[in-house]
Amino acid sequence: MKKSIILGTLAVCGLGLTSCEDFLNDNRFPESQQTVNSEFWSNAVNVENQINYFYENFLGYGNGTGSGNFYWNTLTDDQAGYPGANFKNWTFTNVPASSSSWNSPYIEIRRACNVIEGVEGSSLETTTAEDFLAKARMYRAWQYYKLVRAYGDVPLVEKALDVTDEGILYGPRTNRNVVMDAALADLNYAIDHITTKANKNFFSRDMILAMKAEVCLFEASYQQYVAKNMERAKQFYNEVVSACTPLLSSYTIGSDYRAIYSSMRAELEANPEIIFMKAYEETTLMHSLLDWTSSSTPVCGITKDAFDSYLFLDGKPLASTTMDKNDKGVMVKEGDNNYLSIEAPLATRDKRLSQTIYPYVMFRGTGEDAIQDYKFVNTARMTSTTGYGVFKYNNLSQTEADVTTANRNWTSAPLFWLAEIALDYVEAKAELGTLTDGDLTNTLNKLYARAGLPAQTVAGLSSINDPANNMGVSSLIWEIRRCRRCEFIMDNDIRYWDLVRWNQLERLDTQKNPNIVLGANITPSPIEAKNVNGYLDCSFGMTRTYTTRENLYPIPNGQLNLNPELKQNPGW
Question: CA 224, CA 232: separation in Å to the nearest integer?
Fold first, then answer.
């Protein structure tokens, strides 16, 4: 009966709603696309076709030549610069007239509400109807999560509005707690009523459990570190634990870190770690992530701050390791190429680092002859904003022509996978004060083993006491956050929203944290380049200053003009 479209093979089409430019038009009735005929909604194929539009919102590696959620979101302390340009400033430096960050979720919320109302008024068999409602309510919850983490209080709309709904259309914003409670209710309904239990390409119970873990972890730590509401924080940490528990027993941490990011569809489907993925196929749906990270366009490399965050293979941080701390490269001549090899520094560190960056340094200098580059296998001659190239996503089995051409990449993208579940679980249990060595055995230590690091205990993590810990948290929490940072570097915009929920956006202030605009140690190189104490300067002569207003996005002026009751976020 069901004709779900595999995520990633759906053409980017939509329902024509993307032309809507404001909250009112995104939510009011009528629209030419709205179907109000109960006969339409009583046809399961019609409803399934509406549900299939939801898949488009999961970008993965992007569609065609467009960007996705891996690598491109460079506003973190992990990367410097942004693709195709230079310095990366805050997402907003002024209040915009309109913004897709506000408009797009409401377009999708209206889409979900339209399905919900249509199915509720249909004559579909109960189980079938509940399955459709589960998917629509899951999708609505996901959109509200994205709105709340960006804007805080937002209008809560739980139906496709018509012009008589002025109280909602022109009303004030809803308290974020109410919105997040509604999102949680939607997710719980979806978990209880969706019929597919596990499927890596389709919406399923396991996928929604993974989504719930992410949503509830954000809410829990936001309540703890921003709102200072520990009772609510504990409630949501417990929701994280309950969502993660069944997944930890159903999936397995794989042995190959890079395989999560560089596999073709069949390989990723077979990976025991993958819960939900976006499938790409040659000639059907392709992306450009490999091209952006392997071609001659300057790559947005990882920062010195990120490089220094990786543990050494003795399990200790930079400040206390007894291993060689050297991060300098060695000049190597290979044919007509001179390059700066960093194989030795990488060999002493967490193996995730050598699987994330190339073993040589690439950088732009100060003249035509002052560009150090090296044509590694399956790449063009690249340069990097920080000197560190991005190896993590490259698939060496694809031809160089495919890898270095836009819309010619078809590696598949993870969307929810077990590493994230493992670290969601560990963080929640640690914050609740209930983390045990047995918990670590089944989660963090499996990630450590893959990274070549020694297994740890709760007591061991609690006693590391890294002097680099500048977040005001315990050694245990700091080490869990470190593992999360290294595991998900450049992935799915995770780092930025982690800093938001931990109340740590101040780390993106370049004057207070200068290592986030420094790159590789280039002191052995004879090539001239701007540097600070031998480290590549990737600030482009600019700075980024943190103020508390950055904690929330500004409400677009167009929305405030339409509805002054919304009120602007503080500082904007």
Answer: 8
